[in-house]
Specification:
Shape: globular
Oligomer: single chain
Helix content: 40-55%
Number of helices: 44
Distance between the termini: 88 Å
Largest sheet: 7 strands, parallel
Radius of gyration: 34 Å
Strand order of the largest sheet: 13-16-12-17-22-11-23
Mean pLDDT: 85
Structural class: alpha/beta
Number of strands: 29
Length: 1191
């Protein structure tokens, strides 16, 4: 039966001879339309197309395969109608070799076909992200080390202080690589830094508001001034209508309204100084007295607006006008110099990385994309001969999901396309992958410049809207249009929203037996005793929102039906979340009611118990002296130690000894765990010996078989097999061995490239929990969108260095000494642009979530605000809607409530506010009450108050969430607590105990940095028997350490043996040799005042009584023959020729770099032995002697 196509679909299918942009809304039949167009072109009797002369590009392999299958089915169907058609038979045969592929595979084909043009190896391979991350980090570390060692070292140190502190120098490579990654999607690549630097230099002498950054701030402030002028104008009208209010308030409101006119005019005149002067001259007027009986709701609303603009003025003054015009010019010039230096580093990295990748014959997809662009452009940036050949090869080019392309991808398609043969289909309202590089400006630009089809007779380009929605019920459509005509309609050019974007209800209603239910909005609010201003939701066993959702799902399953009359089952229901945070509570609430659920939200392979255990074992094999992975291995089912047995082993040895040392010593004694100890040590020695010469995949295979580990794996997953396959791929790359494999795993975790798994079972009759991102492309009869009160994540605006494709790069500038940084208006402009873009993306993610529901849609939230506060906020946003005001929304709930205001039932939705306490009671008595009516609760206020007192607990010390449980001494700076958020505090604690943490050098590296050599030399000093070394020589001692397996054979070549020999000849060693008592590799845990590690005075006062556990290891301290305590730290820092000649210069350098760390070591010594060190030295191995550090 032929399909009834809509008029817009027919236009998209039949229009020829134009480049088309098809704006295809959710549920509009985009894929069906695309397939039909291609098939009709192939079956056109007058001018049939050839499938081999088409390029059809999608974003995923699955989409490409699905599209190829649909085209194959369509051609087969046409062939059944005309079985004698040789042409169709030929097209069906050619379909298998047709260019229906992903964007990445198309680029790869271009590069493989033209590898010699770029002097690439013909047999290059695609490396995975983990391998590339290791390689790039290694190369960047080497470049950084080289710059540190250069003659202009002081200049480089000043440069890097703008990116990281001396104590965080390990993160410098990560900062640079992150910038390089972000710039890679730009056509100019890292050369964009040159353009940005030149722009800053040329704009430094102009008015700030005429600059690229200044325009962002100016437009934001104009939008704010317009909003407050309009709001205050209405307030003046309302106040003037009330005689008593007019006498008390009108003069103040009129003055403030006129202020915004003057401020706006200065902004429009591009006068930063004038606008700054006007802002600084603002004098908030005092309101006259007005009796409470005359303060109507309108008057109270006006006062609320007044409070709002006071905050606006304060924020604008602090963020955007703290500099004078001349100072801004100076910061622009300094930023320009930094960007030029940054370009030199990144350019050097790019060249070195390309050379190394060619040697390894390994590239990643970013490289392939850049190569493809280089092949398709000539030196002037125009289409190359290769691009022209592709242009002649393809008669038609189809690109799906065009809203997700970036600027370089768009440029590539432009280079190979004719003026009128591109078919670009997508929906900017569903562009939700900015974290992958999607640039909505591309789609919005076409949408703005292309004329509608009916006006495009004389144009090669045309725009078609496909807005008919065949998926959702009428009420879902009506609600979605109401919300997004408000939100998108106030977003200006970023969305280019028009009424043509509104969804058109077009669902075929055949077989429907029930009316369309209204969208259900249920908000669980605070009771009358709770504060409106509280931001944190109190904790309870299960969040009341989750309880309400579970109760409603139970009601649906028991009493409701789908539109076709069939009972609603768990598999018909999906719960959509912005993040996975609420998943645990929802799962618990559903479990209480016996409702099966399947959590399809993303979780990590490395978080599964079987893989965690395997990685713990591998880490213990790599280095058994790491207590946590070793303890995890011993306590596991593999070796079955009990907690009491581990405590027995641990307490049998000195506190300074590692768990492995304690176990090894205890194994020689007669005790209750002697056999276990013997068995474990035997296995550990066996695996360590195998690991020396065996690839990691073969080592894993041996361990799996030897310990029968596959029997531990759950029946519905193949986690250990996946880990084994990862190991095989790793060994096929350019890095080898166990130590490097653990580094590889760490890189995957740190760069958030962990393989994702799901518990998904599409056939399971269970409620599905899924993130809004992962729901794209799916649909469900019933959808709950939960946790809508959760605040948007704006963490991307917080780093020191910020990047945005529209504005560029800006950063905080280091003040002299590098211990503080200066924020600049340029950085504030970039932060503002990032924030606006993130809020717009949140709108688009919400749009995707709303349009997943076929029949029933629920919006739920739990807030500590009272209903009156929600109404006030919604009224302010709704009544004076603008781009400025909409983008102050902090969560999905505030967006939705502003769009539907007033908060009552509407044509397509119902609105219900429930008190939080009622929800808690409902769950506790659910077994004895009928929950069919989930909106009625028979409970008294006395019941609520009594149970609230018993069950509720409010944690008063939320500021302590920012304190990490413990810190490594190497992480400490005077501002370490100012550089982490609440979540980071937890992560910092975990980092210290991370089971995968390893030595910072590789056992089989092809490129060795100075840091690697230093670490290796330090390792020798850690395990060295000084008496044996002095008697038999350092080389003999090194051989002994290798033989005893303290040091891996691969590490030997990294150790600077000449520096070791100088150490044994030094005066310091002679002093140390005569010591009364010595303490080597002394581990310590000390409590230090938390207030020492913040410069935020308010936070410092809050944590004045708190302490942080600091951990570390002191290389050496000893008591000399005179009873003095001498503290020593070994250092291998590179020294210049001048420094090698002058010990005083070395002392100054070491103090600047390591003085703070030595202060903490000195505190630790005093805590350990009750006496402070009388002398603190650094033994500089390159210098060959110790230098005293006076603190």
């Amino acid at each position: 039966m032929s399909k009834n196509w809509t008029q817009k679909q027919k236009q998209a299918i039949d229009t020829r001879g134009k480049t088309l942009l098809v704006s295809a809304a959710a549920g509009s039949g985009k894929t069906a339309t695309l397939t039909e167009r291609i098939v009709r072109r192939l079956t056109d009797e007058q001018n049939p197309a050839n499938i081999t002369r088409m390029l059809i590009v999608t974003f995923t392999r699955l989409s490409a395969a699905d599209l190829k299958r649909k085209i194959s089915n369509a051609i087969s169907e046409e062939l059944s109608k005309n079985p004698t058609s040789r042409y169709l038979s030929k097209q069906l045969v050619l379909l298998e070799s047709a260019n229906i592929c992903t964007i990445d595979s198309f680029y790869l084909d271009i590069v493989r076909s033209n590898f010699s043009t770029l002097s690439l190896p013909s047999n290059f391979r695609l490396a995975d992200e983990g391998e590339m991350a290791l390689l790039c980090k290694e190369i960047m570390d080497e470049i950084i080390e080289k710059h540190y060692s250069a003659k202009d070292e002081d200049g480089f140190l000043s440069f890097v202080e703008n990116f990281t502190t001396a104590r965080q120098s390990d993160s410098l490579a990560e900062v640079f690589l992150n910038v390089y990654k972000k710039l890679s999607s730009r056509v100019e690549g890292s050369k964009a830094l040159l353009l940005l630097a030149n722009d800053l230099k040329s704009e430094a002498d102009r008015d700030f508001f005429e600059s690229r950054h200044g325009k962002i701030i100016k437009d934001h402030l104009i939008s704010g001034a317009n909003y407050y002028y309009g709001a205050l104008s209405k307030c003046c009208d309302l106040i003037a209508a009330e005689e008593n209010a007019s006498r008390a308030y009108l003069a103040a409101f009129s003055y403030e309204k006129d202020f915004f006119v003057r401020f706006r005019n200065a902004l429009k005149d591009n006068s930063y100084t004038l606008a700054r002067d006007i802002l600084n001259s603002f004098n908030k007027q005092k309101l006259g007295a007005l009796k409470k009986e005359y303060q109507t709701s309108d008057i109270l609303l006006c006062k609320a607006i007044r409070d709002e603009y006071s905050k606006f003025i304060k924020t604008a003054t602090e963020k955007f006008f703290s500099f004078e015009q001349e100072q801004i010019g100076e910061t622009m010039l300094k930023t320009s110099e930094i960007l030029l230096s940054l370009y030199q580093v990144l350019d050097e990295f790019e060249k070195s990385a390309l050379e190394e990748k060619k040697k390894r014959r390994a590239f990643d997809f970013d490289d392939i994309r850049r190569f493809a662009y280089q092949l398709l452009t000539n030196e002037n940036g125009d289409a190359s001969d290769i691009a022209l050949s592709y242009k002649n090869q393809f008669d038609e080019i189809y690109i799906d999901e065009y809203q997700d392309v970036d600027a370089m991808q768009d440029r590539i398609f432009s280079l190979i396309a004719k003026e009128n043969n591109r078919f670009m289909v997508g929906d900017i309202k569903q562009s939700i992958y900015s974290f992958r590089g999607a640039d909505t400006d591309v789609f919005a630009g076409y949408k703005k410049s292309f004329p509608p089809l009916d006006e495009a007779e004389n144009s090669d380009n045309a725009l078609i809207f496909m807005s008919n929605n065949f998926r959702c019920d009428e009420n879902v459509i009506g609600f979605t249009n109401k919300v997004f005509s408000f939100l998108f309609g106030n977003c200006g050019e970023s969305i280019e929203y028009t009424r043509e974007d509104d969804l058109i209800f077009s669902k075929v209603e055949e077989g429907r037996t029930l009316p369309s239910p209204k969208v259900n909005i249920t908000v669980i609010t605070a009771d009358e005793k709770e504060s409106d201003d509280a931001e944190e939701i109190e904790k309870s066993d299960i969040n009341p929102e989750a309880l309400w959702i579970s109760a409603e799902i139970e009601r649906l399953i028991k009493h409701e039906k789908n539109a076709n009359g069939t009972p609603i089952e768990p598999r018909d229901i999906a719960i959509l979340m912005r993040s996975t945070t609420p998943a645990a509570d929802i799962t618990k609430a559903l479990d209480l009611r016996g409702i099966p659920c399947s959590d399809n939200s993303k979780y990590d392979l490395f978080e599964t118990p079987d893989v965690l255990l395997t990685l713990s074992l591998l880490s213990a094999i790599d280095n058994p002296h790491r207590d946590i992975p070793l303890a995890a291995t011993l306590y596991s089912p593999l070796f079955a130690y009990t907690m009491d047995e581990l405590i027995e082993i641990r307490t049998s040895s000195s506190p300074e000894a590692s768990l492995f040392e304690a176990l090894r010593d205890y194994a020689g004694e007669y005790n209750s765990v002697r056999s276990k100890n013997a068995y474990f040590i035997e296995k550990l020695n066996e695996y360590r010996y195998i690991a020396l010469s065996t690839p990691i995949d073969k080592l894993l295979n041996h361990i799996y078989r030897d310990l029968d580990m596959l029997s531990l794996e759950s029946t519905n997953s193949q986690n250990l097999t996946r880990l084994y396959e990862m190991a095989r791929r790793f060994e096929a790359g350019s890095f080898k061995g166990l130590n490097n494999f653990i580094s590889y795993i760490n890189e995957l975790i740190e760069n958030k490239k962990v393989p994702s798994l799901t518990n998904e079972d599409t056939d399971a009759n269970a409620v599905k929990l899924i993130t809004a991102h992962k729901s794209k492309g799916l649909e469900f009869p019933v959808c709950f969108i939960c946790n809508t009160k959760s605040s948007f994540n704006l963490e991307d605006t917080k780093p020191n260095l910020l990047y945005n494709s529209r504005v560029g790069i800006a950063l905080k500038l280091a003040l002299e000494g590098g211990m503080a940084r200066l924020n600049t208006p340029m950085r504030e402009a970039v932060a503002l642009q990032i924030q606006n873009a993130q809020i717009e993306e949140e709108m688009r993610i919400l749009y995707v979530a709303l349009t997943r529901a076929r029949e029933r849609l629920y919006i739920t939230a739990h807030t500590r605000s009272r209903l009156e506060k929600l109404e006030e906020d919604s009224l302010l946003c709704s009544s004076y809607a603008s781009d400025f005001k909409v983008k102050t929304c902090k969560n999905w709930l505030s967006m939705i409530l502003a769009a539907i205001y007033p908060l009552t039932d509407g044509e397509s939705y119902t609105f219900t506010a429930l008190e939080k306490d009622a929800m808690k009671i409902t769950d506790s008595v659910r077994n004895s009450q009928d929950l069919t009516d989930t909106n009625s609760f028979a409970i008294t206020r006395n019941d609520i108050d009594e149970l609230k007192q018993r069950l509720e607990f409010s944690y008063k010390y939320t500021h302590l969430n920012k304190l990490p449980a413990k810190l490594s001494v190497s992480k400490l700076t005077p501002t370490v607590l100012d550089d982490i958020d609440d979540d980071a505090a937890t992560l910092e604690s975990f980092d210290e105990a991370k089971i995968l943490e390893i030595e910072e050098f590789f056992e089989s590296k092809s490129r060795i940095s100075g840091a690697d050599r230093g670490t290796a030399t330090h390792l020798f000093l850690q395990f060295c028997d000084f008496e044996h070394a002095e008697k038999h020589g350092a080389r003999e001692e090194l051989s002994r350490l290798v033989e005893k397996r303290f040091i891996a054979p691969q590490v030997v070549e990294l150790i600077n043996i000449s520096q070791i020999e100088k150490f044994f000849e030094s005066d310091f060693y002679k002093l140390f040799k005569g010591a009364k008592r010595t303490y080597r590799e002394q581990r310590f845990n000390i409590l230090l005042p938390a207030s020492h590690f913040t410069q935020d005075e308010d936070f410092k006062n809050e944590i004045e009584q708190e302490e942080i556990l600091v951990q570390g290891v002191i290389d050496l301290f000893f008591e000399d023959e005179n009873g003095n305590i001498i503290l020593c730290d070994y250092k291998t820092d590179h020294l210049t020729n001048e420094e090698l000649k002058d010990a005083m210069l070395v002392a100054e350098k070491m103090k600047a770099r390591h003085g703070k760390q030595l202060e903490y070591y000195a505190m630790a010594v005093e805590r350990l032995i009750g006496r402070p060190p009388q002398k603190i030295v650094i033994d500089s191995l390159p210098l060959g002697e110790a230098v005293e550090i006076k603190l």
